[in-house]
Write a structure and sequence with these properties.
Blueprint (H helix, E strand, L loop, with lengths): L11 H14 L8 H9 L3 H29 L1 H17 L7 H18 L2 H11 L7 H29 L3 H18 L15 H10 L1 H22 L1 H8 L6 H48 L4 H6 L1 H18 L7 H30 L1 H25 L19
Helix pairs in contact: 1-7, 1-8, 3-4, 3-5, 3-15, 4-5, 4-6, 4-8, 6-15, 7-12, 7-14, 10-14, 10-15, 10-16, 12-14, 12-16, 15-16
């Protein structure tokens, strides 16, 4: 009789709790009504709202890698619990906020809490599976977990608007409860044994990473470009809807549809990997995204509403693929740090890319900006394909089928 039946699976409880963490942290009930909430209840116009969002983004950038390092030296479970508590405190501060300073402090605390999650949950899942020799299940389970988080955002996009109509404070209280639930679920996890990183910043390790993990850096770079482009595409949706004359009442439902599509892509993305291989899957997602943005920008119309949602599909299917590639090459001692660095690379790439798209949109219209984003993806994708085609085959790349663009061991 098999010893891997569900009833005897020692990883099953941890996987369920991490799924619950992903779902609860995705319940961002304020997201579909955050602009009117800030206008009506904090007293901030759209420009000040964007400035508070910049504070949130800057906090995320500043904390991304340090939070991953903290997870490696202090424990992944502990930083997830701490992240849930800090995010809940930040969300609660939206309630009494009545100035830009109040909003900025609340945004910064939420940013710190979310940054603490980054990388720690994925690293914890991989370590749990590795402790029982089941690393091969990571891609499918991480995709499902990623999908659950996107389902939660889709659900909260619909529910949050309804809660706001009843009482504007309810979406905020919903977020506080969701972040506290995240901490509670994480607290119940039994963290597997792992190699612990020394409690110091080790500069020589950066040189070692460059010398021995160039493939990891290539994955991080590819993910930074691809997923920064999906983020720019997401923020381009509402101006595009306005360009087509679509009313604001549809924005929340369209956002929910995008996150639902992304959740399905995350849950079933491993099937695409199985059919095309990791390299083929990532290349296919890249090409589809560039084509979708190209048609949307060059041939504007209602079909573009659907095509812009392709960005959510690419994010849903592609991010677990990239995480798998990183996890298979990085030791447990630095796993959360490197995963956080990958998330940081996306944010850093997003900054100039979004600025360029904004400049194009302001001067030439949103359709030109989206077409420019497609052109950028096409040029970078072609350059990457040529560099891989010209690269000589090394012994490291002949050790089995590998996980894009290098072998897993």
């Amino acid at each position: 009789m098999s010893t891997h039946s569900p009833a005897r699976d020692p990883t099953r409880r941890t996987v369920r709790l991490l799924n619950a963490v992903a779902f609860s942290r995705g319940l961002i009930f304020l997201i579909p009504v955050i602009v009117p909430y800030f206008a009506d209840h904090v007293g901030l116009g759209f420009r000040d709202f964007l400035a508070s969002e910049a504070v949130f983004a800057a906090t995320m950038v500043a904390m991304e890698v340090p939070s991953g390092w903290l997870g490696d030296v202090w424990g992944r479970k502990r930083v997830i619990v701490l992240g849930g508590l800090v995010a809940a405190l930040g969300a609660a501060l939206f309630l009494p906020a009545d100035s830009f300073l109040d909003a900025a402090v609340a945004q910064a605390l939420v940013g710190v809490g979310i940054a603490l999650y980054s990388g720690a949950d994925s690293a914890l899942l991989y370590d749990c599976l590795a402790a029982h020799g089941r690393e091969g299940r990571f891609r499918r389970l991480e995709g499902r977990r990623h999908g659950l988080g996107l389902y939660a955002v889709a659900l909260s996009s619909v529910v949050g608007a309804g809660l706001y109509a009843i009482d504007p404070a309810w979406p905020v209280w919903g977020m506080v409860a969701a972040y506290l639930a995240t901490a509670g679920f994480a607290l119940a996890i039994v963290e597997p044994p792992r190699v612990r990183q020394a409690r110091r910043w080790a500069t020589p390790d950066l040189r070692s990473l460059w010398a021995s993990h160039r493939g990891v850096l290539a994955v991080i770079a590819a993910g930074a470009v691809l997923f920064a482009a999906t983020s720019v595409g997401m923020w381009s949706q509402q101006p595009y809807y306005a360009h087509l004359g679509i009313g604001e009442r549809w924005f929340g439902l369209l956002m929910a549809a995008g996150y639902l599509a992304g959740g399905l892509a995350g849950q079933f993305g491993h099937l695409l990997d199985r059919r095309l291989g990791p390299a083929g899957a990532l290349a296919g997602l890249w090409a589809v995204l560039a084509a979708a943005y190209g048609v949307t920008g060059l041939l504007p119309g209602y079909h573009g509403v659907v095509l812009l949602l392709v960005g959510s599909v690419v994010w849903g299917a592609g991010w677990p693929l990239v995480q798998t590639a990183i996890n298979r090459r990085i030791s447990s001692a630095r796993r959360a740090t490197v995963l956080s660095a990958a998330a940081l690379a996306i944010k850093l790439t997003f900054i100039p890319l979004s600025a360029a798209a904004g400049w194009l949109a302001e001067g030439h219209g949103i359709t030109v900006a989206i077409a420019g984003l497609a052109g950028f993806l096409a040029v970078v994708g072609l350059a990457g394909a040529l560099s891989l085609w010209r690269a000589p085959t090394s012994p490291a790349n002949t050790n089995g089928p590998g996980y894009w663009p290098f072998s897993p061991r």
